[in-house]
Write a structure and sequence with these properties.
The chain is of the alpha+beta class and 297 residues long. Helix 6 packs across helix 7, helix 6 packs parallel to helix 8 and helix 7 packs across helix 8. It starts with a helix and ends in an 18-residue tail after the last strand.
Amino acid sequence: MTSTDHRTLRRVLRREITGTIGLLTDEHDFRAMRRYRSFVFDDHTIYLRHMEAVLRTRALRGSHTTVALFDPADYAEYCERTGVDPDSHTSRARYTAELASTGPTVPYDGRPLADLLPSLIDEAVRQVTREYAATILARLGACVSCGEDLGRAALTRASHLLRRILDTAPTGELHLVCSVLGPPGTLVAVLHADDICGRPELDASEALEFTTVLAVGLASASPGGLVMRISEPGAPDRVHGWRLRAYGLEPLTAGEVFDAYCTDAESGDLIAPESNVDYCEPPDLGEEGGPSPAHGH
């Protein structure tokens, strides 16, 4: 095999190797990293410009790159935990590699960083929400009467309810929002479902987050609600809603949906209704919508 053949094979291998780049998304995090002498950038805008050039170059070479959210505080904890020098590009590379499996990431798809950054931040928020909701469910423990794991039962119930909603929803693009009130704040999960040949197509990560937040609302009996908006070309958007109840969903009337959408959540002031939107009662979920008959969970 000639040296040219070897170089060709290496180029092929480089295209198959994936990489992760840790990104400092805002000025605050950027300033926190400037305390390290090995971090050579002194301007966030220039830093982002160079980062985008690196991403584009890798994409042109056929390399797949994952962009991770680089958190300076978490990085400092990582260095202390692992005993590595935080003022080292090698340590930053090791931390970034770990982010590929543990932290919020998005694939680089050629978009400008200005368009990619909101997606990365949204993914970080989703991960925090998912982890916090999962912690709440894990702390519920076992049912005193039957010994069943309450968190697991709530997840199963939430999964069934979500499937029932999707099965009974009219055709169109779905946008679901679930919100649960409680300390220290409101948990919110959003789920998009594209209409693919009459069947809803879900993002697995969004569906997991949505199911987990819904499970928290069902298990904790905290105030909350679920709203479904359906969009279809050539027709008004339709908005439906439910209240969260103990292990069930209570349908809202069309008037209650209208009031919820046309009232400012913080001030309580009335908001003008959207044009070309119908506020409707939700589809009948049948027995699946009521409380779980087994032990009340």
